[in-house]
Each structure stands twice: as structure tokens, then as C-alpha cells.
Amino acid sequence: MTNTNESDEGAPRVPVVCPDCETTSRVPLSELADAIDRHNEQLHDGDDVAAVDPDIADRIADLAATDLGLLEGDQ
Questions:
Q1: pLDDT score of 2 more than 50
Q2: Is residue 63 part of a domain?
Q3: Can you give the residue ranges of the DUF8149 domain (predicted)?
Q4: pTM for the complete prediction?
């Protein structure tokens, strides 16, 4: 699932999981959407099977909500 070039060597890498293929991969952030789309198109007839690791996606959502002040009423 990973296709890395030299310019992405220092870039943040995001874990991507595919439960159907039982694989986990780390993809440069700049290639994330394309890598997931390509995997799902080639191996799962376009169904949304592979995705960012759910634990990471939840953590990113929490950080974004905090930065946007969306959780201030919950404290």
C-alpha cells in the first residue's frame, strides 16, 4: 500500500489498516488519501475498507475539536 519517494522521507507517516487484507502500512501524510483510494479501488472494488487507523483518527479528531474550542463546554 505504501509508495514512497525521496521527498517524503522526513514527512509524517500515518498508519493505515485494512481489516480485509489483514495489513497495516504507514503512508506519508501527503499521499494518504491517494494511497487509501488506490488500495480500495484495486483490492475492494472501491468499497471503503482500508482507512486511517481508527485510534489515530479518533485522536486527531479530539485534537482538532480541542483546537477549535468545540469541547470547552464538556470540561
A1: no
A2: yes
A3: 7-74
A4: 0.73
